[in-house]
Amino acid sequence: MNFDKLLLDAEKGGFQLWKLNFLILRGIPFNRPHGLKIVSISPTEVKVRLPFWRINHNHIRGMHACALATLSEYSTGLMLLKKLGSSRYRLIMKSMKMEYFYQAKMEAVSSFSISDEQLKTIHAELEKQEKYLFIAEVKVHDTAGNHLCTGHIEWQLKPWKSVKMANA
Question: Which CATH architecture has domain 3-162?
Fold first, then answer.
C-alpha cells in the first residue's frame, strides 16, 4: 500500500477520502474506538473530526482531555506525512503539551496546516543533521466555534536511511 498516494488521492474527496479513513482505522487500531474521521485533506490543510460519543466522554460527560490530545496528534501527523512523504521520513511523537480552554460538549474538529517556510526549515535542518524536532501547534474547536484547546505536538523527523533498528 502506497500511503503517500492514498493521501494525495484523498484530496479528491468522496470514495478516495472514505478509503483513506477506512484503511487508517484498520492500520492504527488504537484510534478506531475514538471514531476519528478525516473530514477534508488538501495540499495545505488537514481537518479531522472527533465525534461526541460516550467513549470519548470524561466523568462529567464532556469530551475527555486525552481524546482531544489524540485528535491533535492525529491531524498534525497526517499533515506532516502528507507534506514530507511517509516513504522518505519516519515520524515519532516525542512530546505533547496541551492547553485546555473550554469544556467540549459537542463534536470537536482540528485543522492543521504547515507553511512553506516551515517546510523549508525542516528540509534544511534534515540536510545538516540526521533528525529534527518540529513542534506543530494545532487549535481544536467545537462545531459551535469555541476554542477548546491548543496542542503543541513535538515530532521527531528522521529520514528512513538514518533509522537504526535494535536487534530483538
Answer: Roll (3.10)
**Looking only at Cα atoms, what is the longest distance across the chain?**
50
Alpha helices in 94-148 (DSSP H): 116-128
Closest CA to 76 of 135, 127, 19: 135
Q: Mind listing the pLDDT tens digit for each residue in 106-158? A: 999 999 999 999 999 999 999 999 999 999 999 999 999 999 999 999 999 99
94-98-104 Cα angle (round to 5): 135
Q: Which tens digits make up the pLDDT trace of 3-50?
A: 899 999 999 999 999 999 999 988 887 878 889 999 999 999 999 999
Q: Average pLDDT for residues 61-76, to the nearest whole number?
A: 94
Show me where the domains of the chain are located: 3-162
Interatomic CA distance for residues 87 and 91, integer angstroms: 11
C-alpha cell at 109: 474538529
Q: 13: which DSSP letter?
A: -
Give, in degrees to the nearest 5, the angle at Cα 108 between 103 and 122: 110
